Request: fold
Amino acid sequence: MNNELDEIDNGPYFEPGDNDPINGRFVNAQHKRLLIEQDWMGYRGEKNKEREEAIFKEEVEILKEESAKNNPLALFYMGVCCVNGSGMPKDSIKGRTMLERAYALGVKRAADFLLMYFGEEALQDKSIVEKVQKNIGRYRFKIDDVAEIVKKMIATEAEGTAKFKLAVEASNGIAKAFVGLYDCLKGDESKGDYEPTEDSYLCLCEAATLKDAGALCEIGEISLCYEKYRDIAYGVESLWEAHNLGDELAGIRLKNLWANDLKNYTDPEYRMKVRADGDDVYAVGFYYLHGICVERSVSKAKMYFEISHKMGCRNAREQLLLLDND
Reply:
């Protein structure tokens, strides 16, 4: 079977639209291969209960991993599984939340399942898109991980030390304490270790969610400068939020980024020449949407978001949904 899968790209029921990351069938390449194998087993009339159960178990794990990354299609499948208790404990509240996220991110058939499971009122909430925009994926970290870092420091650091005091303050939700922990945990710059450690980055992200302007600016810089955390879309958004909170450095960084880099991506020939990705074009749309260094133009913003979306940028899809619901 494995040799056959290596030679076959399409299952017997495969359609070109199945690869659509929003309204298709497969959440990633691994998921595609599993379902193609399942298709061929059914196509041949093969009965292998053990393998079928293994495929389903592996599929659920893929969906869990991808939904944690806010993959729209995975959120849809996970929502259905949660509501029905398929491969996991039945949880209609969690299932509805996931279906709402999928719907807000463009998975059209999620609307049918919301209607079927929860009635017409499930689709009457016009704030679904705004709610999702605020709560998913602005900063890529898990709250439980941050809490565990703080808890560990309180348990291991000597009482009265600077780290101990910062950890205690952080446990009470003080943004500056998380910034202090970031400074304590990041790499030793005197040794040329400038890239933030994962724990320090998580602490900085928590400070950013608490609207600390300096943390937001630093998140923006990290997202633009370090390959491990590189995410131009999130970087620009974070710098803009920091600027709106009064961080002067963030405003300077936004201007320099446009002058030295982003304005080039308004030229289609340049985009082709450098093989631009969706995030670069998304950032251009973001500048036009908010009038950063350019005259504000919603129509131009939508144009660049549409180009970015076609290049695979999920942030662009979210912005288009928000603009369509304004």
Notes: The two ends are 50 Å apart (CA to CA). The first helix runs from residue 2 to 7. The CA atoms of residues 3 and 114 lie 40 Å apart. Residues 2-135 form one domain.
